[in-house]
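Milestone M4 deliverable, item 7.
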Amino acid sequence: MELSTWLAFFAASWAISISPGPGAIASMSAGLNHGFKYGYVTIFGLVLGIWTQLLIVGVGLGALIAASSTAFTVVKWLGVGYLVWLGIAQWRAPARPMVAVSDSGEKVTQRALILKAWLINIVNPKGTVFLLAVVPQFMNLTQPLLPQYLIIGATLAFTDLVVMTGYTALASRVLGALKEPSHIRAMNRIFGSLFVIAGSLLALFKRSV
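Output delivered:
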């Protein structure tokens, strides 16, 4: 990949990462509920999700999802259901910031947070279709594809790490300013609503023909 091509993709990656979406909501939700140090691992799950999406596109499964109406619909509604479920869980979460616990009262592991973030990104066919539309524009098909995919994956990971770190840190600072349970409960419901809205927008998403 030539330097000029990479710089163009690098600029596009920032726009992709900064634009609001389920990943940004997940990062802010983690920072709000678990603080920066504990919630930061969510970002690694999001990056793993991006790499999984890129792998799907690379092996051709992304083309199948984009071309098959049934496959696209199944994956899309899985994503919708998962985001709405996350929103309801966030809405009903107890007003206990800085304590990573599940509904059963057990401690939520960082592995569970990573898995949750990974699922958020991989059950989003919009991301797959987006990578199918954008990534080929920056690739030279006459050169080996694997090194180009590695560069693209590393670039997306870097920009997402930086942007989502900012989102998580911002939310964790807001968390520090929340003193009353009613305030914490209100923030939980705001982020829960955002997850539901993200799921609703995904439900409305249609492939460009």
